[in-house]
Every structure is written in structure tokens, then in C-alpha cells.
Design a protein that fits this description.
The protein has no helices and 28 strands. The strands form 7 sheets. The chain has a 4-stranded antiparallel β-sheet with strand order 3-2-1-28, with no helix packed on it. A 4-stranded antiparallel β-sheet has the order 4-5-6-7, with no helix packed on it. It is globular.
């Protein structure tokens, strides 16, 4: 098989992972996943593998293959894995779980290399562009920075006590972080380099983005937009300069769980409980393609273009 230039995948409560031709909307490969639902999908930087975060394991599948079998399984979490991602060179993977831990996995060796205790269920983890800090958000409303060099928690924030932090996103240049919670609020901080080279948070903005849960927030690659996907069936696009509402993407019939930008920030893919994923044009603010084939809620999507 020739390597596709655009890798687009979705996962659903119907226990399948589907790969799609982005332009035609055709599903060209389905992986059956009977033993768990998938919470999160992430594609490796080299486009060779797809990680599926499940309960309680992570599985790595070859992108360019017809094999339904994973090439590797990562066990040691004891509950739903809610976050997964890769270091920029693809040497290691990080994960966060409802078991209250953040873990680091060396992809060249079996087993978990490091573990950080967050106590409360971890909903979201992002890697700072400096590649030396992980930022996690949990069910109790805590945001923590894990310094990989010092091997410890270097910073702790609680924007709203007992309000779960559902999603975190960091600007590509490392200058801003946004946290979205179950009350539809986004907290925005400017990230500063402290005296000890640790990252410091300076409050910048509080955005009441939705009336329902925000399930995913995401800054665009061009550092221009913030997308917020919500239980109110919409995705809102905010201009990062002043956080003014630019567009509301309407069309999904149920909760919108996940979204991912194309590398140029011109397109957005969304995943919804209405069993579809959709491709949106950012300049037009319109839906340009619907990916249909799942039989239950589509809860996550991954794009590498």
C-alpha cells in the first residue's frame, strides 16, 4: 500500500476505528475493536502508526497496513485512558488516565518508563512545545505542570474548584495555554519562562464560550483561532486576538466530542454523537464533507496532513 498523504481516522462507541479518504469521504479501512471503546486517537509524527487510547490500555496500529492486529499494546493503566500524544521526534508517548496517573512510554522499549500521580481522574494531557513539560487537567479541576527534567510537578493551578478540566491546548510557539471545563468556560493564560526555566502562568482571559460542557478546546496551528466543541451541538471559532467570536459551526445533531485542525489551519474535522465526523472550511465556516459509517456515537478523530 502506498502511504496516504492525508491520514484521517475516527473511532466510535460501535467498537470500530475507521480510516477515511479525506476528499471523497470514502471509508477504506475498518478495524474492529471488540474489547473496549476508544477514547482518543493520535497519529505518530512520522504518520506510520495510530495510537488508540482505550480502557485500560493503549494500542498502536500500523497506518499503512490492512492488518487488524495492533503492533504494540501498552498496559499498566488501570482505568480509561483519556489522553495520548507523542514527543515531536516520536521517541516517546505520553498518556493520562482516569486511574489518576500521567505516564510516559519509550516507544523503543516495553513498559511504562515514568509515572506521575495526579490523584484525581486525568481527563486531558498536552505536551508543551519545549518537549520538556507535560500539562494535565483532572476531574477535580486541577491543572498541573510536570517537569520532565526535574521529574516532578513544578506548578499547580485550580481555575475553578471541583469543576472538571475537560480539555487543554497549548499554542505552537508555547506562549499561551487554554483550559476548558464542564461549565462551558475557557481560562486563558500567557505562558512565561520563569527564572528557573520553569513555565509560569499569567492570567490573560476568561471566556464563557458555551452554556453546556466544552468537550474539546484546540488552538489552530497558525496561532489565529481557538475552537471549542461542546455538548450544545456546536463548535465555536474564536479569534485569539481579543477572543471575539468569529464563527459558529452548526450541523451536528448531538454532542461534539472532538476536533482537529489541518496543518495550515484552513480546515477542521469534528466528531459527534450523531455518528458522523465532518470536515469544515475555516474561511467559509461551512461543512464541506460528512463522514458516515459508524453506527454509534463518534467520539474521537485524528488527522495528519
Amino acid at each position: 500500500m502506498s502511504q496516504p498523504c492525508v491520514v484521517l481516522a475516527t473511532a466510535s462507541y460501535d467498537h470500530t476505528i475507521r480510516f477515511w479518504e479525506a476528499e471523497s469521504g470514502r471509508c477504506y479501512r475498518t478495524i474492529q475493536y471488540p474489547d473496549s471503546h476508544v477514547n482518543r486517537l493520535e497519529i505518530t509524527p512520522d504518520k506510520r502508526h495510530l495510537a488508540a487510547a482505550c480502557n485500560p490500555h493503549i494500542r498502536l496500529f500500523e497506518v499503512n497496513s490492512n492488518s487488524p492486529q495492533p503492533v504494540m499494546t501498552y498496559d499498566s493503566h488501570t482505568n480509561n485512558v483519556m489522553a495520548v500524544g507523542f514527543q515531536c521526534d516520536g521517541k516517546w508517548m505520553y498518556s493520562g488516565s482516569e486511574d489518576g496517573t500521567v505516564k510516559i512510554w519509550d516507544l523503543r522499549a516495553p513498559g511504562c518508563q515514568r509515572e506521575y500521580e495526579s490523584v484525581a481522574a486525568v481527563n486531558t494531557v498536552v505536551l508543551h512545545p519545549n518537549q520538556t513539560e507535560l500539562i494535565s487537567g483532572d476531574q477535580n479541576g486541577n491543572i498541573r505542570v510536570w517537569d520532565l527534567r526535574a521529574n516532578s510537578c513544578s506548578c499547580e493551578l485550580v481555575p475553578e474548584v471541583d469543576t472538571p478540566v475537560r480539555s487543554l491546548t497549548v499554542m505552537w510557539d508555547g506562549t499561551m495555554v487554554v483550559a476548558a471545563n464542564n461549565r462551558g468556560t475557557c481560562y486563558v493564560w500567557r505562558l512565561l519562562r520563569g527564572k528557573q526555566t520553569m513555565t509560569e502562568f499569567e492570567p490573560l482571559h476568561k471566556l464563557q464560550a458555551h452554556n453546556g460542557h466544552i468537550l474539546k478546546c484546540l488552538l489552530s496551528p497558525a496561532n489565529k483561532y481557538l475552537a471549542t466543541a461542546s455538548s450544545d451541538k456546536t463548535v465555536k471559532i474564536w479569534n485569539v486576538d481579543g477572543f471575539k467570536l468569529e464563527k459558529v459551526l452548526t450541523g451536528h445533531q448531538r454532542w461534539v466530542w472532538d476536533c482537529v485542525f489541518s496543518v495550515d489551519g484552513e480546515f477542521l474535522v469534528t466528531a459527534s454523537s450523531d455518528m458522523t465526523a465532518r470536515l469544515w472550511s475555516m474561511p467559509a465556516g461551512k461543512e464541506v464533507k460528512v463522514y458516515q459509517g459508524h453506527h454509534k456515537a463518534t467520539v474521537c478523530c485524528a488527522l495528519h496532513d
